[in-house]
């Protein structure tokens, strides 16, 4: 399974008060807080860990078809990119730019396509174009929907496919990842 998350750093810095009493403790484990407070780039590590947790949450939710229920402390991050929840681990790949932090989480090594966009656009159209190119399917036959747990599903010719994918957006950034 696969998940992704993006953080618009400018928006996060204006909307979030991570220095507020109890905020770090509510989101991060004691070990994660130690990594964060020892970092030379505290805010960047906060948003990297946040993004890792969110991406792993999406992958975990899809893996087990779970209803939405997010407890950030149950997702334990390691600085090198692993996220653990219960007895499962997720490998993450994080791209850090001056403007955003973008993470993809995977339950296993898989081939995927991903794109980040920095202006408003129809991310669903871009995802469909990628699927069209990779699977050689007419774009008009692709429909993106959600299941009863809010998990995105790809339908081709009105048949649901087990095509792992995830869409994320924050501020002026949006991104998708799809395993094809």
Task: Please explain how this structure is put together.
The chain is of the alpha+beta class and about 180 residues long. It has one domain (about 1-180): Ribosomal Protein L22, Chain A (Alpha-Beta Complex). Helix content is about 30%, strand content about 35%. It has 5 helices and 11 strands; from the N terminus they run βααααβββββαβββββ. The chain has helices at about 10-15, 25, 30-40, 40-65, 125-135, and strands spanning about 1-10, 75, 80-85, 90-95, 100-105, 115, 140-145, 150-155, 160, 165-170, 175-180. It has a 5-stranded antiparallel sheet. A 3-stranded antiparallel sheet has the order 6-11-10, with helices on one face. α3 packs antiparallel against α4. The longest helix has 23 residues, at about 40-65. The termini are close together. The relative contact order is 0.21. The mean pLDDT is about 90.
Offer a few descriptive terms:
180 residues; alpha+beta; 5 helices; 32% helix; globular
